Amino acid sequence: MKRDVVRVQIRGILPANSGCAVFVGNEEKVFVIQIEHNMGAVIGMFLRETPKERPLTHDLINQVFEGFGITVERVVITELKDSTYFARLILQQTNELGRKILEVDARPSDCLAIASAKKRPVFVARDLFEQVEDMSEVLARINEQSEGGEDSAKE
Questions:
Q1: What is the DSSP string of 42-79?
Q2: CB neighbours of 51 closer than 8 A, spacing ≥ 6?
Q3: pTM for this prediction
Q4: How far lies 14's CA from each of 43, 68, 98, 147, in Å?
Q5: Average pLDDT over residues 128-148
């Protein structure tokens, strides 16, 4: 992927009407990606390094990657079409035959879960980053209101 990208991180996860709002951004801007509630819980578990009794689906995927010598290089949130975000999982495999880079189309929620589990960087295509609405103030207000409470958006 030869696009210009901006590095971001997960700045918060909050329950929303139909799932979870994941606040993604950096010091310049924060935007929201709506995901399923269970995916928000999974991402939160990986961010907090919560011990799990049994492997989750994303743990399984990562174990398969490790078994085949595949590393997660990075995640890139690439575009927004009809209110749906798209992302790419960038993988690398090195073996006796050489080095191979593979880009896989994936839901941003799965990409964020895998990146969180493996502590890998997350990027957003610059043109997308410039077009999304800045939700920094909203996140700041939510964090101010919940300071001292247990429902903080910070993960």
A1: HHHHHHHT---SS--HHHHHHHHHHHTTEEEEEEEEEE
A2: none
A3: 0.88
A4: 11, 35, 43, 14
A5: 89
Q: Report the DSSP pairing between strands 5-16 and 19-25.
A: antiparallel
Instruction: Write out the two tokens for 126.
Output: 């610059």
Kindly list the strands in the beta sheet with 5-16, ordered across the sheet, starting from the edge strand earlier in the chain: 30-35, 19-25, 5-16, 122-125, 70-81, 84-95, 98-106
Q: Which two tokens stand for residue 63?
A: 């174990």
For the chain, the structural domain boundaries read 5-146
36, 109 in Cβ contact below 8 A? yes
| Whether residue 11 has pLDDT greater than 80 | yes
Euclidean distance between the first and the last CA atom of the chain, given in angstroms as a whole number: 29
5-146 — its CATH code?
Answer: 3.10.690.10
